[in-house]
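re: ur question from earlier - yeah i can do the single chain one, its not a big deal. heres the input i used so u can compare w yours
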Amino acid sequence: MDRYFLEPNQLKSFSKEENAFVVDYTSQTGGLRGVEILNVPPKDINYFHLENRGKIEFWGVNFEKCSSLFKKKDENCECMFVAKQAKNLKMACLVELKYCLDKERNLIENTIKAKSQLTNTLRILLDKGILNTRNYKIYLNISIPDSEKIPFTSFLTTTPASICSAKDEGCTLWGYNRLRVLNASFLVAEKERI
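and the output i got, formated as tokens:
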């Protein structure tokens, strides 16, 4: 990843001991701050959490800082996490956050828009050769930090298999605020306990 993302603040390296937290301050700060990928949980905003239980080294890519990768009309997701090394497939997880101000109405609308942003970003990364399905196990995750409903994928209008084209076969669509790194190839979703 470090050969594709060379500009300052595009790429953040995480050690085997670090977790990742993603926030989007854009609405909260009127655009003064935007997407941030952190290694400590913020206290002032809800977030997406990538819990590094597998103790792997990984990259965090902030797409908001990657203007040369996307055209102005492109809708892209917030960020991506990629394992640095793996014996087989490397994990690649694209994440889109949606903060729902009007919970009932915005939850469905935001989920549909997030799905579009994730699949568009994936298409661009595949087209540019940054990702491929031979070397990466690809996850697409919609996080709605303000919502307590888990998972959010029940609001999607299509199945994960129909979202990814044949060449993208094997990508997984989820809707969670927290994912756990199992190892350099696989993530697991936090399951709601009843």
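The longest strand covers residues 90-97. not sure if urs matches, ping me
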